[in-house]
Inverse folding.
């Protein structure tokens, strides 16, 4: 993929995702100034709506708009208050109304410029506005770069839980400029590292060993490309999340419950880290794993200042998990780590959850 293990690229790396719509993920440095040129290789819009939050828009909104206008594309910038609290139906419909008021057509474009919240919401808007218009992901957070910008999942939250309304809708392009990660606060970088660690626990001991030292910033090019490649392979096998793609939910079932119970004051990465430690510990205690790798996971998370213990009672967590979107009938698939780099799906009855999670909480 054009990079050495120390993350020194020999130019932008291109990873092709093959799904219902195939597209490229381009990873490199200083790509924003040429965003319009990259976009025009895959679509030819007359106008583009740049969707971004009030933290990211002042940093990068003008650069992306200028690159579009250089290619003859009219650029509109729509911003919303940053944070998970904005990922709701009200914000979504405000965006849809904005696009309608400005005469955006099916041949125009939405650009998601930001982190996971921005990508999820902009992608959802693109999938339902005029029954579907093109969109491009430009992730500016580590979490979005390694995970949420790739694979076509879009969503907003409902009062009952996280990501309960959404679609599968693939972007036309993902453009990942590593230099945008330089402006991330340490807490946001750490949030993304939880997802990176997840990929290592999932199926890549080399990646896990690389990042567990706490020195990930020196290897970002390699890390992003590796995580995207892992996700690409799972999406190719199971685009609509009915089988092996569910392995990407490692730590998420309990993690989403932690987010909900905290009223989203606990970040997604923090919650996923807590969820990974808990599922590893509980799986070993329940005899579903031959070894307990929870301490290894906790040590890797701690290297980036991420929490490892759950502050909520088992009954509270299970009440939220019962409403999780991954539930099917009276069961839910849990992602169980046998050891670092080796995980599998295990279907558990809903009425067994409290006993299972009670073993480690």
């Amino acid at each position: 993929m054009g990079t050495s293990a120390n993350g020194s690229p020999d130019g932008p790396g291109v990873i092709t995702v093959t799904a219902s719509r195939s597209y490229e993920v381009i990873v490199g440095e200083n790509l924003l100034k040429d965003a319009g040129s990259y976009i025009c290789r895959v679509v030819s819009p007359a106008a583009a709506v740049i969707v971004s939050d009030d933290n990211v828009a002042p940093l990068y909104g003008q650069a992306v708009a200028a690159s579009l206008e250089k290619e003859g594309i009219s650029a509109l910038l729509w911003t919303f208050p940053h944070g998970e609290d904005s990922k709701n139906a009200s914000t979504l419909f405000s965006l849809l109304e904005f696009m309608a008021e400005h005469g955006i057509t099916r041949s125009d474009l939405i650009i998601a410029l930001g982190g996971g919240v921005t990508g999820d919401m902009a992608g959802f808007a693109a999938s339902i506005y005029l029954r579907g218009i093109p969109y491009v992901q430009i992730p500016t957070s580590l979490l979005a770069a390694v995970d949420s910008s790739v694979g076509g999942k879009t969503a907003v939250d409902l009062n009952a839980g996280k990501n309960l309304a959404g679609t599968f809708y693939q972007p036309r392009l993902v453009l990942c400029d590593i230099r945008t990660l330089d402006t991330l606060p340490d807490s946001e970088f750490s949030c993304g590292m939880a997802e990176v660690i997840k990929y290592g626990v999932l199926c890549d001991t080399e990646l896990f060993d690389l990042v567990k030292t706490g020195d990930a910033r020196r290897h970002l090019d390699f890390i992003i490309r590796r995580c995207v490649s892992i996700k690409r392979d799972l999406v190719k096998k199971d685009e609509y999340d009915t089988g092996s793609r569910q392995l990407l939910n490692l730590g998420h079932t309990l993690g989403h419950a932690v987010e909900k119970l905290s009223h989203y004051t606990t970040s997604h990465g923090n919650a996923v880290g807590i969820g990974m430690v808990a599922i590893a510990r509980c799986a070993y205690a329940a005899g579903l794993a031959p070894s307990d790798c929870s301490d290894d996971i906790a040590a890797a998370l701690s290297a980036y200042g991420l929490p490892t213990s759950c502050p909520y009672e088992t009954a509270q967590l299970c009440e939220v998990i019962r409403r999780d979107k991954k539930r099917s009938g009276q069961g839910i698939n849990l992602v169980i780590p046998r050891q670092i780099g080796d995980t599998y799906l295990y279907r558990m009855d809903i009425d067994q959850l409290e006993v299972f999670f009670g073993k480690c909480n």
User: Anything to note?
Assistant: DSSP finds 13 helices and twelve strands in the chain.
